[in-house]
Amino acid sequence: MGLSLQKGQGLSLTKQDGSSMTQVRMGLGWDAVQQPKKGGLFGSLFGGGEAEIDLDASAILYNAGRQALDTVFFNQLASKDGSIRHTGDNLTGAGEGDDETIMVNLPSVNGVVEHIVFVITSYSQQTFDRVQNAFCRVVDDSVPGSPEVARYTLTEQGPSTGMIMAKLSREGAGWKFTAIGQPANGRTVGDLVGPAAAVL
């Protein structure tokens, strides 16, 4: 397990020898809130349990002036410069571990990109009070075993349909990961371009 971050905390993405990380993986995950069992025969057969939650993880790339330059999401699985790659859409949120992952080749990120913001949106308008255990984690993919570097677990729920989870920002010659956890509303990544810029 990596360092557990609280909302607003950050961590420089450097290795033990002081060099900057080069290949990182952003894993985002969530679970549906357990629904209470209903009474009666049909309730015991069909009611309760874990509902399916279809959320979408995306990345938004900004310049120093907070202008959005590019987005990476389920309909555009790679950034224009090829440095960021989405591994595909998870339609249910079922299973343990990461539900969706976004790979980032940090040295290849276009030099005008200052921030990469990771967001989650609900295309079906399911709200975050139906979601639990939402998290965002950074994994160092440049070393064998891909150790987890940092993790941010969302502690708040609410009626929002989107969440600005975390960001990567340039820091000198390297990058820094910061936990955000800011509720927002949107069906698609485009709906969160403005709200995400506001928290940079």
TrEMBL record:
Q: Which Pfam families match?
A: TerD
Q: Where is the TerD domain?
A: 1-186
What residue ranges are annotated as transmembrane? none
Q: PANTHER family from the entry?
A: CAMP-BINDING PROTEIN 1-RELATED
Its name, as the record gives it, is TerD family protein
> Origin organism of this chain?
Sinomonas flava
